[in-house]
Amino acid sequence: MNGIDRAELDETIAKTFKEVRTAIDTHSEKSLQMYSNALRALVELRQQVVSQERAAG
């Protein structure tokens, strides 16, 4: 995954997780669903980045 900075991705994951927590605290079902989906996708992307880095050596 050329061009994806792992540190920036980690920061985005952390911010998105905070948004999930905020949605839980405010009982916002729509926000919770949106941020949960985004967090899931970001975590999957990070797994792909790590896998590709390991494969590249």
UniProtKB/TrEMBL annotation:
It comes from the Bacteria. This is Uncharacterized protein. It comes from Streptomyces chitinivorans.
